[in-house]
Amino acid sequence: MKNKVKELRFQQAMKQQELAEKVGATRQTISLIEKGEYNPSLKLCLAICYALSKTLDEVFWIGEDEDE
Amino acid sequence: MKNKVKELRFQQAMKQQELAEKVGATRQTISLIEKGEYNPSLKLCLAICYALSKTLDEVFWIGEDEDE
DNA sequence: AAATAACGTAATATATATTTTACTTTAAGG
DNA sequence: CCTTAAAGTAAAATATATATTACGTTATTT
After folding, report:
1. pTM of the model
2. Which of A20, A67, B33, B42 is the least crowded, having the fewest Cβ atoms under 10 Å away?
3. CB atoms < 10 A from the CB of B48, how many?
4. Interchain CB distance below 8 Å, A43 and B45
């Protein structure tokens, strides 16, 4: 369940804590999502996209083959 | 949690049952997702995208404002 | 090198997505 | 009409995402 959250968060100099607060989640949840060890809900994915000013494809899209 | 699953499924003349089997879920789950009463997991969203040959943005993207 | 901020991570608890079973409703074809 | 396939829906059970609490690790600053 790979994604670009960490990378994009860094580009915007945002801390896990900040992102967590923006999306109404916990720092731990963000951490696990960034590590790709979580299967987040669509709602949380969308919240993260809004917080990072990106779309779903830009943050969470993974080609069918490279999946996992 | 609006989306375009139903619309796209119709365009491809696919039954809920077929889609459910392709993505490894239940017909009921597909039904509720189509009705927008569910908050599906990213994994399931991706599976649905693959089954419909679409990307996340094409199926599940909702602008920040029109969000529910 | 100590102190502190930021992040990794683990255990348990809670909320909720998903399944299972089953019944109803709707639509299409004979 | 009658039959049947397809879809809506509901209750209970199960799986799993997320929160909470807490502690370890890494990096940064002084």
Report:
1. 0.93
2. A67
3. 25
4. no
Phi and psi (nearest 5°) for A41? -80, 155
**How long is the CA B52 to C1' C29 vector, in angstroms?**
29
CA-to-CA dists, residue A55 to A33, B11, B27, angstroms:
16, 24, 28
Using CB atoms within 10 Å of the CB of residue B60, give its burial: 0 to 12 exposed, 13 to 18 middle, 19+ buried.
buried
Give the model confidence (pLDDT) of B28-59 as tens digits.
999 999 999 899 999 999 999 999 999 999 99
| DSSP letter assigned to residue B41 | B
- The answer to whether A7 touches A18, Cβ cutoff 8 Å, is no
**B58 to chain A, closest Cα gap in Å:** 9
Rounded Cα distance between B68 and B66, Å, is: 6
Instruction: Taking the CA atoms of B50, A64, B60 and B63 in sequence, report the sign of the dihedral they define.
Output: negative
